[in-house]
Specification:
five-stranded mixed beta sheet; Euk_RPA1_DBD_C; single chain; 1265 residues; signal; alpha+beta; Nucleic acid-binding OB-fold
Length: 1265
């Protein structure tokens, strides 16, 4: 009878339907998400089918379609086959209106109702459950003139509204199938029940003919006609008129808030799932509870405590005008409009109710005395019950006084007062929806001149506007339009300059603009992170980016395409200001010919000529400590500051900005630079004693590739490119030159000019110059010096050498000279990234063995703005670092387990913890033998990571995978800013267990955002991964049986009674505990052959003969003791805020709130996407892990339908069998590790290092002993 798609947080997407048999009995049926593809094509509404092999499950929820207490479930063995039509009946069971109104019918059963639509209200645009929807109110009249109130939502509201508009005789009969009965204020009404209901207007039914025959005369046009325009042009009334009104309806009222009604709460808490008010449980107060317990709220619909609650406003105000006083009520959406904030933001994470109603928040008290224009709803209880409180259904924004004047004025508005052809003015115009546009359609064509009269002038309501004019034109019924001959040959372009796009004014964001240029840098089709509902497409998430170059005379290696974009708006996308097309109005013209008055060639030249001639001023500043930083003065301000800034002078600069120092080359190693603004103040000051700020680079350091090529070389300490003029020698110092390797070779290096920033100082007065002269005099003037680095001078700079030495090298007391190879600049107010890196340096870990040469870092990185969430990291540089050594991120799973505790100190880090919990010993098979290893603890609340503001666990749990991936990405981006030397390095992401979710999701975000922040992701590797829980769960028991953990009899019994298709609700729970081996305290589920910890007590001295190859079952207790030591935390820069709880390896509460839908989600589609982008994938399994056994992982890989490239074969380490491996098309390799459990680097460190090394070097695993 009805088929619809339904989505729930726990179960995901499913198909729901209502079935009816030949007897007319109706029953719910459902198809789960994993079977949708199998059945979706054969389930068609209105078609009879034969359905066999089904399950019967108890019905749940409050509302049902019949008295039957069961619903049908489809299983894998269910079959749906065709059937001849049994009956043409719709099996209507129309409920009588008087029975519904009397309350004698079962309100939990959905009923069919039919009647004539009368008293229809305007259709409303609302937000329900944070989603936009529509609502319409009306009454249904039956043949006995009994009237039943009705409310329809969403698409059903649009169906009725459209039918009433199109009706010619004013008679509309509506049939609502499976309608819900509501009770509010002792008044019963009906409404649709989500997508379960069906709405038919004037259906062709025998019941309709019977209804017409028995109803007598129909009421003509009893649905309320529209008064005014579609946007809600309701009459304005005073409060006295509202109080004395005798008509149900709506009206505008301009009123002033005189007081807040404190008899009612200002806000309440409701269940997120049902949007209904919940009741707070009395808080439990126990003296031994260290941390305050989060309050719980009882939800009547859930029949239990709500999993997630949210605060919403419920304001009751006393309002008044010059005629009287009344009260009004504003629900959350309208209260937010006048308060400018949301209830959760106002409460700031608190769940406390207002104890003293006279003490209200300032933002609510601030409403007193303010004037608003409300749209009030006058209801029956206001008219007949004397109820003086009215519901606010809309808040009008804008200038109220102007709006009153406009609506009350009937004066004719002269069009010339709005539009001036000579001034190229624009004005917005609006034609309301409905039939208004029909008379005007023939005249409304682009490029047509028209005459408009008898229109209305209103205040613009839309944020996006097409003109900056104060008012806009609104068409009404009396408006007349007729065409005019062309008055002036113009296209009225309003072109924007790049600088206006980069630094827009506040009002520029609201108006559309035009641009013109040559199309360059066109991207492929990209997608925003967007998940579409079933049946919809992701078309709205697709976009293409490109650039417009305003230089048509430039040289291109392709035929240039000139584009004109019209009516595009400035928007911020991925942190950059761009022109974005607006839906409906934006246009783009490629090589346009329809603008004959624009000569593209001359116009492009004209565009270039319009760019201001002043150029950006670049500076290099040095402070008294010898630290240097770049500064930029924009072209609009360069003329203002040029008289105050001279080379060699000391100045004090205040009120500046700090911006990222982008570009392929920089004058300093600093990641930021100073940006001048209109508020920046520059004052001359007297010189101060200072440390020399120049750093002279040696030829050997340049040739041996020891200097970062992205930073301009300050000078060469031995760079004495001299020429002989009259027998003399000139020593030349080159400042801020670029290092370049002009062809491959060990010493084929040169330095080149880098534009205006580069300079030459002949014979500078510095000690190094004098030293070179002295050496030259000792060796003789005729000595021919030669160097392997060739220096190329531009003509302008070379001319400085030919002159006598008039250009002197500024002394360090004089100000800005040569750039230093420094790490920070002391004058800026924002703490820079390199100083943070230095602060994070770990001098030495407590108990660390001697002979450690590699550096270690530890600290916090903020992952949001403003900084409130901080992830802790532990970073270990490679033992033998080089500029090509890759960066590897490591994740442990859980979700909620620490990568520092497990990964760094138990598995693959450089150290393990002794049994005393105080000292460390080396791990010779640490992965930093091959890579720089980065461990960080995530998500928030794992290990040392924390949030400085209250954290809503329920909200996090509902989208945990997504939020974790976003935080992980922001951590990596911000960490690379702190460690810029790793930008551009090969990056690999590795981990195990639930990292099977973390890693693919993070990799996907990296690839999607590489046009914003480039990260050179080369591959991912995941051990014993959780990739698809549903498939893995079905294959775990095969491993359990094959390793003798259950009997063959129990396995056969389990397969019989616990099979999804033949689930036995009585017998399956009895056999299930035998397969839940994770609860067996005598068995380690992560390595079934490993011993378990029997004594967790720390030893006073480290155990003797401790080796890496010996796995201590109590190791986690040692790590916990070590990381909770205050001196360890201090050395690692951890727990700096003194968290009120101790460090733990796993946060089990976080795991408990993690939504099952995320845990069950399959990562296979993401793996396919990554492989399609060229990312190499390694999946490996320890062959004695029962948590996620190799049988489960192989079953998941089988569903990927990959072609095998290299068949199953053994691999070896040092002559010993390491496991087996197989390669697939698309750069995916699967390997097993012999004798290893869940943590391969822990159980088999030698094999693990071999596996890891082969992966990052992209070499095959050894196939021979």
């Amino acid at each position: 009878m009805n088929v619809w798609r339904q989505y729930s947080v726990k179960a995901g997407e499913s198909i729901k339907m209502i079935l009816v048999d030949e007897a007319g009995d109706k029953m719910y049926a459902a198809v789960r998400r994993e079977q949708i593809k199998k059945f979706e094509r054969c389930l068609t509404e209105g078609v009879w089918k034969i359905i066999t092999t089904i399950t019967l499950n108890p019905t749940s929820g409050q509302y049902h379609i019949s008295d039957l207490k069961y619903k049908i479930g489809f299983v894998f063995k269910t079959t749906v086959s065709p059937c001849d039509t049994v009956s043409d009946s719709l099996f209507l069971s129309l409920a009588k209106f008087d029975v519904i109104l009397s309350g004698s019918t079962n309100s939990n059963i959905l009923h069919d109702v039919m009647g004539q639509v009368i008293d229809r209200s305007e259709i409303q645009d609302l937000n329900a459950n944070n989603k936009p929807t529509k609502k319409i109110d009306f009454h249904l009249r039956d043949q006995h003139d009994t009237r039943l109130a009705c409310i329809l939502w969403g698409k059903y509201a649009e169906i009725v509204d459209k039918a009433c508009q199109e009706s010619t005789d004013g008679i509309v009969v509506c049939l609502i199938r499976f309608a819900k009965i509501n009770l509010y204020n002792d008044t019963r009404s009906v409404s649709n029940f989500f997508d379960v209901s069906q709405v038919f207007v004037d259906p062709t039914l025998a019941e309709l003919d019977l209804f017409k025959q028995s109803s007598g005369s129909f009421h003509k046009r009893l649905y309320a006609p529209r008064t005014g325009d579609d946007d809600g042009d309701y009459p304005r009334q005073t409060i006295k008129e509202v109080l004395t009104s005798s008509d149900v309806g709506k009206c505008k009222t301009v009123c002033t808030v005189s007081a807040i009604d404190t008899d009612w709460p200002c806000y309440y808490f409701c269940c997120r799932a049902h949007n209904k008010k919940v009741v707070k449980e009395e808080a439990i107060k126990l003296e031994d509870v260290k941390q305050p317990q989060k309050p719980r709220f009882w939800c009547e619909i859930c029949n239990g405590f709500a999993k997630s609650v949210v605060a919403k406003f419920w304001l009751h105000l006393h309002i008044m005008d010059q005629t009287g006083e009344a009260r009004c009520m504003l629900f959350d959406s309208h209260a937010k409009e006048i308060l400018g904030t949301t209830a959760p933001e106002l409460l700031d994470g608190s769940f406390d109710e207002i104890e003293d109603p006279t003490v209200l928040p300032d933002v609510i008290n601030g409403l007193k005395g303010k004037t608003f224009q409300f749209l009030l709803c006058i209801q029956r209880e206001n008219i007949f019950g004397g109820y003086d409180s009215f519901t606010v259904v809309r808040v009008y924004t804008g200038n109220i006084v102007d709006e009153i004047v406009q609506e009350d004025s009937d004066a004719y508005v002269d069009p010339s007062s709005l539009i001036s052809i000579e001034q190229n003015n624009r004005v917005d115009a609006t034609i309301p929806q409905g039939n208004y546009h029909n008379p005007f359609r023939p005249f409304l064509k682009p490029g047509t001149w028209i005459h408009i009269s008898d229109f209305r002038v209103v205040v613009p309501q839309s944020r996006v506007r097409y003109s900056s004019f104060r008012f806009h034109i609104k068409f009404i019924w009396e408006t007349s339009v007729y065409p005019l001959p062309e008055l002036v040959k113009r296209d009225f372009f309003d072109f924007i300059f790049p600088v206006d796009l980069k630094y827009p004014c506040l009002e520029d964001w609201d108006y559309v603009t035009d641009a013109m240029g040559v199309v360059t840098n066109i991207s492929a089709i990209k997608k925003f992170l967007f998940v579409c509902r079933q049946g919809e497409t992701d078309y709205e998430s697709r976009y293409v980016s490109f650039e417009l170059l305003d230089n048509i005379s430039a040289a291109y290696n392709y035929q240039p395409i000139v584009a004109i974009v019209r009516f595009w708006r400035i928007a911020e996308i991925e942190g950059e200001n761009v022109l974005k097309s607006e839906f409906g109005c934006s246009r783009i013209y490629l090589n346009p010919t329809n603008f004959p008055e624009i000569d593209i060639q001359s116009y492009m030249t004209f565009l270039v000529s319009l760019v201001p001639s002043s150029k950006v001023m670049g500076l290099i500043l040095a402070d008294e400590h010898g630290m240097t930083i770049e500064a930029t003065v924009g072209y609009k301000m360069s003329d203002h500051y040029k008289d105050f800034i001279n080379e060699g002078e000391w100045v004090t600069i205040t009120n500046f900005g700090v911006v990222e120092n982008s570009g392929s080359v920089r004058a300093t190693t600093h990641s930021f630079k100073i940006g001048f603004s209109v508020d920046t103040v520059v004052r001359l000051t007297s010189p101060v004693p200072a440390i020399p700020h120049y750093r002279l680079a040696s030829f050997s350091s340049i040739i041996d590739d020891e200097i970062d090529k992205s930073v301009l070389v300050a000078t060469k300490k031995e760079a004495h490119n001299y020429r002989r003029y009259g027998g003399g020698v000139i020593v030349v110092v080159l400042g801020w030159w670029k290092i370049d390797r002009y062809f491959d070779g060990p010493k084929n290096v040169r330095v080149c000019t880098a534009g205006p920033i580069s300079t030459v100082f002949p014979d500078p007065d510095i000690p190094e110059s004098n030293e070179i002269h002295e050496i030259n005099n000792r060796m003789g003037k005729q000595q021919d010096w030669s160097v392997t680095a060739c220096i190329f001078l531009s003509l302008s700079l070379a001319s400085q050498i030919h002159c006598s030495s008039q250009t002197h090298f500024p002394s360090h007391k004089g100000g800005a000279g040569l750039s230093g190879d420094t790490s920070h600049f002391n004058s800026i107010t924002r703490e820079n990234v390199l100083s943070l890196k230095e602060k994070d340096l770990i001098e030495k870990l407590p108990g660390q063995p001697s002979g450690i040469s590699f550096r270690q870092y530890g600290g916090y990185v903020a992952v949001n703005e403003p900084a409130t969430r901080f992830l802790y990291y532990y970073f270990v540089e490679a033992i033998k670092p080089s500029k090509s050594t890759p960066l590897v991120l490591w994740f442990n799973g859980g979700p909620g387990c620490s990568s520092v505790g497990f990964g760094a100190f138990e598995e693959l880090g450089p150290f393990r913890v002794h049994s005393d919990g105080k000292t460390l010993y080396r791990n010779p098979y640490s992965w930093n033998n091959e890579a720089n290893m980065l461990f960080f603890e995530g998500p928030i609340s794992v290990g040392f990571s924390y949030s400085s503001t209250p954290f809503d666990w329920e909200i996090f749990g509902e989208q945990a995978d997504k939020l974790t991936a976003e935080d992980n990405y922001m951590f990596l981006v911000n960490w690379l800013e702190r460690f810029p030397e790793y930008k551009g390095r090969d990056v690999y992401i590795s981990g195990q267990s639930y990292a099977g979710h973390y890693i693919p999701q993070l990799a996907q975000i990296i690839l999607h955002r590489n046009n914003q922040t480039f990260i050179n992701l080369r591959g991912i590797s995941i051990g014993n991964p959780g990739l698809d829980l549903l498939i893995e769960a079905d294959n775990e028991n095969k491993f359990i049986l094959s390793h003798g953990l259950v009997s063959q009899k129990d396995f056969e019994e389990y397969s019989k009674v616990c099979d999804f298709a033949n689930y036995d609700m009585d017998e399956c729970p009895k056999i299930m505990p035998k397969f839940s081996i994770e609860h067996n305290k005598h068995l380690d589920v992560y390595n079934i052959y490993a011993p378990v910890c029997l004594n967790s007590t720390l030893s006073s001295e480290p155990k003797k003969c401790t080796t890496i190859m010996e796995v201590d079952p109590c190791r986690s207790n040692y790590v916990k003791a070590y990381l909770n030591s205050e001196n360890v935390q201090e050395a690692m820069h951890a727990n700096t805020t003194k968290l009120p709880y101790e460090w733990k390896a796993c946060n089990h509460y976080l795991n408990s709130v993690w939504i099952d839908a995320d845990k069950d989600a399959s990562m296979v589609p993401i793996l396919h996407d990554l492989m399609g982008e060229g990312v190499r994938v390694l999946v490996y399994s320890g062959d004695v892990d029962a948590a996620i056994p190799f049988t489960a992982t192989m079953a998941v890989l089988k569903t990927m339908n990959l072609t095998v490239v290299n068949e199953w074969r053994p691999w070896f380490t040092g002559g010993q069998l390491g496991g087996f491996t197989e390669d697939y098309e698309g750069n995916l390799t699967y390997a097993t590790v012999k004798g290893s459990g869940h943590s391969v680097p822990l159980d088999q460190p030698v094999h693990a290092l071999n596996l890891f090394t082969s992966f990052i070097r992209n070499t095959p695993l050894p196939q021979t002993p």
